[in-house]
C-alpha cells in the first residue's frame, strides 16, 4: 500500500493502523471512502516512524482493545481521532 524507505516503515504502519483501530478508525477504508488521501496516510505513517515513543505505544496497543482517545504522546492523535465515525 505504501512504499517504505527503510525497515522501520512496516512497523510504523502497524503502530499507525493499530492506534486507529483502537479508536474505531479503519485507515484503509478511510482512503477508499475518500475521507483520507493516500498522501495524508503516508504522512501519518511517517510521523509515527519519527516518534520516539515506540515502547509506551507498544504497551498501549498490547493492552487496549478500544478507547475513546489515543495517548497524548501520539503524534497522530488529532488526525486519527478526527476520522472516528
Assembly type of the chains comes to single chain
Count all strands and give the number.
Answer: 0
Mean pLDDT: 91
What is the helical fraction, as a range of percent? Answer: 55-70%
Q: Profile the largest sheet.
A: none
- Provide the succession of SSEs: HHHHH
User: What is the distance, rounded to the nearest whole angstrom, between the alpha carbons of the first and last residues?
Assistant: 23 Å
User: Counting H and I runs of at least 4 residues, what is the number of helices?
Assistant: 5
Question: Proportion of β residues?
Answer: under 5%
Rg calculated over all Cα atoms: 12 Å
Class per helix and strand makeup: mainly alpha
Overall 3D shape: globular
Describe the protein's architecture and organization.
The structure is a single chain. By secondary structure, the chain is an all-alpha fold. Helix content is 56%, strand content 0%. It has 5 helices and no strands. It has helices at residues 9-22, 27-32, 38-50, 54-63, 77-81. Helix 1 (9-22) crosses helix 3 and helix 1 packs across helix 4. The longest helix is centred in the first third of the chain and has 14 residues, at 9-22. The chain starts with 8 loop residues before the first helix and ends with a helix. Mean pLDDT is 91; it is low at 1-5.
Amino acid at each position: 500500500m505504501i512504499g517504505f524507505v527503510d525497515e522501520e516503515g512496516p512497523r510504523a504502519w502497524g503502530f499507525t493502523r493499530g492506534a486507529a483501530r483502537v479508536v474505531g478508525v479503519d485507515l484503509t477504508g478511510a482512503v477508499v471512502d475518500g475521507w483520507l488521501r493516500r498522501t495524508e496516510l503516508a504522512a501519518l505513517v511517517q510521523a509515527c516512524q519519527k516518534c520516539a515513543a515506540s515502547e509506551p505505544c507498544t504497551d498501549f496497543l498490547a493492552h487496549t482493545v478500544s478507547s475513546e482517545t489515543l495517548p497524548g504522546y501520539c503524534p497522530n492523535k488529532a488526525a486519527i481521532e478526527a476520522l472516528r465515525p
